Structure formats: C-alpha cells, structure tokens
C-alpha cells in the first residue's frame, strides 16, 4: 500500500459544507411528505393551577382543521422512561396528561390543520378557563430541597476558621437558554404500524426508546432520522413534548404531521440552564495556596419534575470546583428550589460554565486581595491529579496552556492596578481564567464498508450518532480516510439514523472521542482481513485489487470504541487558559470584548478546521453568558418576558472580538486509540469569569451577577460620582 | 391566484393571503433551503433577495411579491458552479450546524451590493452590516473571513 499523508490533526474543508451552502442539507422541518398536515399549539396562560374548561367550538369551525387534542381526548400513552439511561422526557408526565398546569406556556391544546396558517389561527381561537394557583418563579424566594451526599474532603469548616486569609463571596447566574437557531421540529408519520420520525434531536436512540415505550412498540418498529440538526447545545437531548404529540396526531389522522415550535415556544417549553446562586468561601495561606474551599449552590428545578427521586438532574456546579485546584479541605452543599418553570436541562458545559464562573471569579478576588498576579495564583494551586479523587491525569498540560496563552496575549505587560490602562474614552482591562471539561466517552459503534467501483476502492461509514454542527461527518471521514489510506472524497459518511449502528447521545463533548476510535477499529479489522490476500507481505496492492482478488464483493466491519487502559487508573480531563481584554466607556457602561486568547489541551485534534471553529463558538457562547443572556420571568405570573430573539439577546456579528485560538498537540493515548478528547464545550467554560475579571481590572467594579449589563455598571459608576 | 417568480421560474399559486413569502417558498414550492429561525424578523435565517435586495422573507407577504424577482439560496449557484460567496463559505469554514448559513450567504451577497465602495468596507463595517444574521454556533469570525475573501 502506498502511504497517504497523515490527515489527522490537519486542516480540511468540512465534508458536508457543500450541502449546507446550497440549501440542500435537509433538517427535520424540511422534510416534505405527501398529504402533510401541520400542527400548532396553545400554551397555558397561567404558570400554576388547573384548566377548568376548554372551548374548542370556534377553532373547530376554522376551515382545514383536522384535529384538536386536549387532555380530554389525547388518548392513552405508555409510561415514559426517565432516569434509566435509555431516554429522557422533559416532563415525567406525557403532554396533555391532565388538567394540571406547572409552568407558563405548557401545552394545553394542539391543533392540526391542512396548512400552518389554519392551525395557528385555530389555536388562537381556543378558549380556556383556568383556576390559577400561586406561582413561584423566583429562586431567592422559595423553599429548597437540600441534596444529601454532597462531596467533601478534610475538615472544611475548621480550615476556613483557621485560614490566614478568607474570602466569602456570592456569585449568581440567571436562567439562560441554549436557544439553537433551528427551532425544535418533528415530522412524524406511520407506515403501517411502524412509526417514522424526522426530528431535531441529539439522540436518535433516546427518541426511539421513548416513543417505543409511549406507543407500546418494539424498538425496531420506530425509526428516527436526524441527518442534519441546526444546533442544540443541550436542548435536544430530551424527546420534546411536541414530538410525542406529533406522533399521536399522525396516528390518529393516518397522515404525516409536521410540528415546528415557534421561537417563543422554544424559550418557554424547552429546558433552560437553571438559575444559580453560588456562595464561594476560600481559605488560603498568605502566599495564596488554598487550604479550604466551600461551595454552596442554590439552583432551581421544576415543581413537576419529581426531584430528586424521579429525576435527580440539577445544575452540577460542584463538579468542577471539587477537582480543579489543590486544596486539602473541600465541601459542597447544594440546595435545589422547585419553581413553576419549565424543567431546566443541559446547556453547553452544564456545571462547568456556572461553577467556573463562581470559582474563577473568587480566585481573581483572592489574587487582588493578596496582591498576587492572577496567573501566578493559579500556578501556586495547580495540581497534576484530580484534587477530589486523587487520580492522576493521563494527560495534563495546563501549565503549558497558561504559559503559551500568557505569551500570545502579552500578559506580562499587565499593570495589576484597576483603571491603570486607558485608551481614548475607554478603560481597558485584562482578565484570565482557567477552562476545563472532563474527557468523556461512551459505548459506540461504527460500521465501515469497503467496496470498489471503476475508480477503485471506496468506504461507506455509518453510525446513529448525530452531527449537530460539531463536524462529526468530517471527523469520521478523516479517520477512515487515514486508516484506510483513501482519498477523502472516497469516504462517504451516513449519520443520525436509528437503524445504523448504535451511538450515544451527542453530549458532554463525547461523540468524536467515542466514534472516531470506533471507526478506526472497524478500519483496522478490514485491513487485517484484506491484507491476508496479498501475495507476499511486501506486496503493494490497492484495496480495490485486493477486494477483487478476494472475490468477496464489499466487505464490512463494525468497530467499537476500545476499552481505555486499566479501568479507574487515570482521570481524563481537558484544560485551557483564557485571556480577555475589554474596553468600558464609563459614560456608557457598555463592555466591549476586544480580544480573546484561548490555548487548550483537548488531546489529539482530529480536524483542525472544525475544532478551531468549535472552540471559537464556545468562546462566543461564553461572551453571551457574560454580557447578554438572561431569560426573565415575571415574578407575579411566571410569564417569560421578551421570549424571542430580540428579548433573549445572543451574540451577533458586531459583538465579536478578535479571537486567537490554539491548542497543544498533546494526544491522550490512555484515553482512546486516537488520544482525542472532545472540544465542544471547553471553549465556554472560563470566558464569563475572565470577562468579569477584565471588567474589574478596567473599572475597579466587581460584578458577581450575570449578565454584566450597562445599567449595572452605570449604577456603580454613578454611585461613585455621588460619593 | 398569485404569480411568483422565484429563481427564474414562474409559479402560479393559490395562496392563503396570510402566507408569508417564507412559508410559500418552503411549504408550497419545496424550496426549504431558506430557513425559519424565529418568524419574527429577528434572526435573518430566512433572508432571500427580492429584485437583488436582501429581504426577511418571514416578514414579507407572498402576495406582495407579484412582479418582483425572488432569489433563494437554491438559485444562487450557476448550475453546479457555486457562487463565489458559497465557495468562500466552504473554504473559510464559515458554518457549523449550517442552519443560518443560507441566510448569511444571501445577506452577505446583497450586502456587498449595497456598499458604494467595497474597498472602504472595514471589518467593523461588515460586522455591523451583517448583524441581522444570527449564528448561535459562533462561526462569525469565519463568516467575516469568507466575506473578505469575496470582497474585491
């Protein structure tokens, strides 16, 4: 075999880009089927209480209306699986289960009509009489459930009391929303007794398991297709309520039903990131070495989620605070507050994006208090093993990230005094933070089939895993082209179909790390089989020739991710260092991020082009978290206020700074055969804290409550002028 | 009956007068490359050209487009040959999930036409003029790079 150049880690165009720039990539809402009917929903006008009566008379008279479903006529559905790892429902009760209302916007009726206009019009004509009950939507104003079994080590209370230096600060985050550009969409249809669903989902097998249970079908009678998904960021893990209802309506009508959430329904009915209040207590020696860290979090859950027995999910803020820095005494406490809001879920780097906001903010405060450079403080508290489990990292290069990032940013030139740098009307500030995310992977399988045509051998790669924009199509094509020494254009990748070899949910930055090694394993099996047909071990023969000689026709192999090293021996973790420059014009109070430098260790990078894009995307997600994003609920009625893209503001072109992203070429071979960890989430993790630290450096104002808005800074600056 | 001219082809449609241009394209003509991200004119995913100018098709009524020429992402390439902006988006990796991409490309092509002197268009100017097109994946720096590549 001729040796092809090794492609792994190099740049390269996305293999699905051609489809995406021509409008040919087909997302769920693009699926057209004959006789397609359209769904619309009526959401509850109260956040808590009961539906007393629903009057559908006027809606039924609208031309083209085919079906109206409410809790009176939705019909029976099986129990939804939840908490058993096979699937996730956003609400333990199926939609339209009964008259109870637990959050504003909860579906109380579904209309299906010949056209989307008719369905929307009819839904608006449904009259609902409610019996409202008091609603609680303020995390600071409701009773909490304290979690048992909180992580701890040493004697935190005693160490805090004895520490020469102590810091006690409260950091908070509002409700924030993943808010992908593609609204959640489903096209459901029944083929005989089999259900076929085109869905915007991160997890086709989760969808399949949930729908199979709901309709009492064997798994293989349900097929889920998601070849393209328009972003997700955690919000398409659960099988959404409307997906289930679309399948119910399609069965009832005997025709396909398309269901696309309106933007305000995405914001009101798809789980957000929970609000948090995080008290961080640090105890340190005078040189800054930590002796105690106590992290007390308050976050919210939904009143109807059955927390904690039925659904234990809560924003896992302490996951990162317990492990990041060397500190002998640690204690986490977590209180969870049930509110009349949609059940919170996962949003990019759940736990890290919130937990690091608090911890890294507190570390910057400690550095200021001690007069120690914030970077030096991190180095003094660095650990080469997981501080909580004590396990050594198989690959850990955080010091190098700090070093290289500081060099690229010019950190050494920083004058530590707040307001020491000005440019024109603006205060300029520099801040930094550590970024980190666990190396995750799951059982996964990939089928690779090798065949030949007149141009020689080509490979077809298939797995149920979903590419949410992450670059999975490209990563698998690169890995297979590399392992089989084929040109990239001779590798075809098929994804996102529940009939393909099983793959886990695209989440936790796990998928490339799970599927790329599996694809490689399949290729190695194929190589072994075909190389046996060489005339002698030194023969150079193309795969096409060997296939012909074998007389086999196409051959295929299914690869699984190999088990990694000795179980439990190592911890796997990605790290990074993020440096930020901001400008604040005091008269405007507006923070402009002008420069970001991020240096990451994510193990072996598979495709440099997509990885760079994803890390930048994570950083911009962090910029939104820091400066823009807040989903507000009216405290009296629980109504999401401004639930659209003008009210829930996400970063736009004009918000984008110069971003310098790089990574260390540091494979983590103990983690998997390729040494690659994911890069989908780490980009966001340190950004908010780095921005807040830079704002403090620029202005002297410490903001501990996100987002950092102009009105907040203006109020502080005005207060100073009065003083 | 409404006569719509889209990508050079004429279509006679019996339309509900409430139908937006976006829904007419997607649901009646099968041109699903144009995306619905918000249906409120706030995200730009539905951007198309009407007589060469960028228009948010979710805020335009289909019946009002008679006598005008509509171009969608499907009509931008010359047969198999990509429009230079499409090519630049591929080369600069100016996308991730791809959902906002058709709108970004249509917006970028028309934006360059709006400017009197493209050579004086700064990066900040491009960012400002493209800010009606949201990308949640954060491919913005690469979108800027693609537009700069096409700008003469």
Indicate the topology.
The complex is a heterodimer of chains A (723) and B (152).
Chain A: H1 17-21, E1 37-43, E2 49-55, H2 57-60, E3 65-69, E4 100-101, E5 107-113, H3 116-124, E6 127-132, E7 145-146, E8 152-153, H4 156-162, E9 165-173, E10 185-191, E11 194-199, H5 204-215, E12 222-225, H6 241-253, E13 257-260, H7 263-269, E14 276-284, E15 290-302, H8 318-321, E16 329-339, H9 352-370, H10 374-380, H11 398-409, E17 421-423, E18 426-438, E19 445-453, E20 456-462, H12 472-484, E21 491-494, H13 511-531, H14 543-550, E22 555-560, E23 573-585, E24 590-601, H15 608-627, E25 632-633, E26 640-641, E27 658-663, H16 682-685, H17 687-699, H18 710-722
Parallel strand pairs in A: 1-13, 11-12, 15-16, 20-21, 24-27
Antiparallel strand pairs in A: 1-5, 2-4, 2-6, 3-5, 7-16, 8-16, 9-14, 10-11, 10-13, 14-15, 17-18, 18-23, 19-20, 19-22, 23-24, 25-26
Chain B: E1 2-6, E2 9-13, H1 21-28, E3 47-50, E4 53-56, E5 69-71, H2 84-91, H3 101-114, H4 123-129, H5 140-150
Parallel strand pairs in B: 1-5
Antiparallel strand pairs in B: 1-2, 3-4, 3-5
Helix pairs in contact in B: 2-5
Distance between the termini of chain B: 43 Å
Count of structural domains of chain A: 3
| Name of the CATH architecture of the largest domain in chain A | 2-Layer Sandwich
Number of strands of chain B: 5
Average pLDDT for all residues of chain B: 96
InterPro entries (chain B): 2Fe-2S-bd (IPR002888), 2Fe-2S-bd_dom_sf (IPR036884), 2Fe-2S_ferredoxin-like_sf (IPR036010), 2Fe-2S_ferredoxin-type (IPR001041), 2Fe2S_fd_BS (IPR006058), Aldehyde_Oxdr_Iron-Sulfur (IPR052914), Beta-grasp_dom_sf (IPR012675)
Protein name (chain B): (2Fe-2S)-binding protein
Pfam families (chain B): Fer2, Fer2_2
Domain 2Fe-2S ferredoxin-type (chain B): 1-76
């Amino acid at each position: 075999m001729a040796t092809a150049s090794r492609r792994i880690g190099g740049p390269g165009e996305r293999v699905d880009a051609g489809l995406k720039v021509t409008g040919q990539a087909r997302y769920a809402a693009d699926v057209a089927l004959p006789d397609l009917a359209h769904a619309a929903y009526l959401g509850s006008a109260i956040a808590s209480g009961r539906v007393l009566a629903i009057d559908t008379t006027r809606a039924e008279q609208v031309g083209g209306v085919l079906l109206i479903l409410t809790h009176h006529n939705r019909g029976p559905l099986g129990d939804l699986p939840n908490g058993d790892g096979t699937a996730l429902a956003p609400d333990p009760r199926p939609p339209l289960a009964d008259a109870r209302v637990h959050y504003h916007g909860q579906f109380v009726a579904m209309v299906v009509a010949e056209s989307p206009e008719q369905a929307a019009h009819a839904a608006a004509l449904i009259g609902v009489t409610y019996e409202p009950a008091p609603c609680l939507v303020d995390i600071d104003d409701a009773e909490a459930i304290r979690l048992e079994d909180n992580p701890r080590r040493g004697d935190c209370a005693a160490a805090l009391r004895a520490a020469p230096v102590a810091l006690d600060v409260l950091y908070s985050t509002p409700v924030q929303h993943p808010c992908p550009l593609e609204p959640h969409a489903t096209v459901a249809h029944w083929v005989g007794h089999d259900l076929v669903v085109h869905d915007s989902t991160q997890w086709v097998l989760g969808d399949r398991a949930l729908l199979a249970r709901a309709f009492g079908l064997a798994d293989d009678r349900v097929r889920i297709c998601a070849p393209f998904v328009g972003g997700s960021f955690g919000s398409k893990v659960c099988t959404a309520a409307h997906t289930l209802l679309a399948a119910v309506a399609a069965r009832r009508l005997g025709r396909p039903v398309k269901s696309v959430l309106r933007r305000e329904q995405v914001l009101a009915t798809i789980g957000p990131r929970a609000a948090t209040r995080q008290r961080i207590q640090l105890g340190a020696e005078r040189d800054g070495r930590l002796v105690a860290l106590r992290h007390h979090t308050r976050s919210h859950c939904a009143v109807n989620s059955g927390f904690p027995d039925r659904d234990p999910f809560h924003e896992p803020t302490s996951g990162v605070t317990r492990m990041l820095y060397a500190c002998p005494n640690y204690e986490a406490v977590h209180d969870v507050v049930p509110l009349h809001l949609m059940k919170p879920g996962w949003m990019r780097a759940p736990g890290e994006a919130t937990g690091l906001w608090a911890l890294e903010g507190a570390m910057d405060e400690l550095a200021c208090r001690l007069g120690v450079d914030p970077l030096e403080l991190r180095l003094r508290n660095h650990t080469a093993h997981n501080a909580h489990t004590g396990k050594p990292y198989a690959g850990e290069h955080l010091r190098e990230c700090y070093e290289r990032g500081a060099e690229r940013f010019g950190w050494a030139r920083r004058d530590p005094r707040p307001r020491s740098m000005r440019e024109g009307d603006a205060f300029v500030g520099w801040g930094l933070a550590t970024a980190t995310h666990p190396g995750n992977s799951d059982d996964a399988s990939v089928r690779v089939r090798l065949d030949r045509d007149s141009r020689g051998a080509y490979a077809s790669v298939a797995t149920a895993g979903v590419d949410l924009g992450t670059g999975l199509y490209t990563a698998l094509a690169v890995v297979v082209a590399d392992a089989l020494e084929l040109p990239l254009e001779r590798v075809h990748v098929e994804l996102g179909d529940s009939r393909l070899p099983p793959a886990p949910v695209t989440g936790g930055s796990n998928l490339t790390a799970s599927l790329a090694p599996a694809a490689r394993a399949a290729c190695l099996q194929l190589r072994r089989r075909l190389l046996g047909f060489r005339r002698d071990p030194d023969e150079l023969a193309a795969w096409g020739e060997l296939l012909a000689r074998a007389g086999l026709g196409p051959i295929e192999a299914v690869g699984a991710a190999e088990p990694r090293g000795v179980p439990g021996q190592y911890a796997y973790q990605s790290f990074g260092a993020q440096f930020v420059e901001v400008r604040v014009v005091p008269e405007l109070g507006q923070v402009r991020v002008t420069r970001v430098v991020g240096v990451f260790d994510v193990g072996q990078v598979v495709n440099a082009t997509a990885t760079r894009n994803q890390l930048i995307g994570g950083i911009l997600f962090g910029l939104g978290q820091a400066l823009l994003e807040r989903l507000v609920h009216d405290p009296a009625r629980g109504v999401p206020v401004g639930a659209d893209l003008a009210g829930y503001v996400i970063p736009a072109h004009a918000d984008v700074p110069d971003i310098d992203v790089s990574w260390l070429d540091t494979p983590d071979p103990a983690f998997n055969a390729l040494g690659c960890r994911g890069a989908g989430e780490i980009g966001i993790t340190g950004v908010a804290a780095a921005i807040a630290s830079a704002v403090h450096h620029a202005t002297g104002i410490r903001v501990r409550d996100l987002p950092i808005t102009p009105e907040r800074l203006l109020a502080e600056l005005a207060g100073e002028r009065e003083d | 009956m409404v006569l719509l001219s889209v990508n050079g082809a004429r279509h006679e449609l019996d339309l509900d007068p409430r139908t937006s241009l976006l829904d007419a394209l997607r649901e009646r003509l099968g041109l699903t490359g144009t995306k619905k991200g918000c249906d409120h004119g706030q995200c730009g995913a539905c951007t198309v050209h009407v007589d060469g100018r960028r228009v948010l098709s979710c805020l335009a009524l289909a019946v009002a487009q008679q006598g005008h020429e509509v171009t969608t992402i499907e009509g931008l390439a010359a047969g198999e040959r990509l429009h230079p902006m499409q090519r630049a988006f591929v080369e600069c990796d100016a996308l991730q999930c791809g959902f906002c991409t058709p709108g970004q490309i249509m917006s970028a092509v028309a934006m360059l036409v709006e400017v009197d002197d493209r050579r004086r268009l700064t990066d900040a100017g491009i960012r400002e003029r493209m800010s009606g097109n949201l990308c949640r994946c954060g491919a913005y720096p690469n979108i800027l790079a693609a537009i700069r590549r096409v700008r003469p």
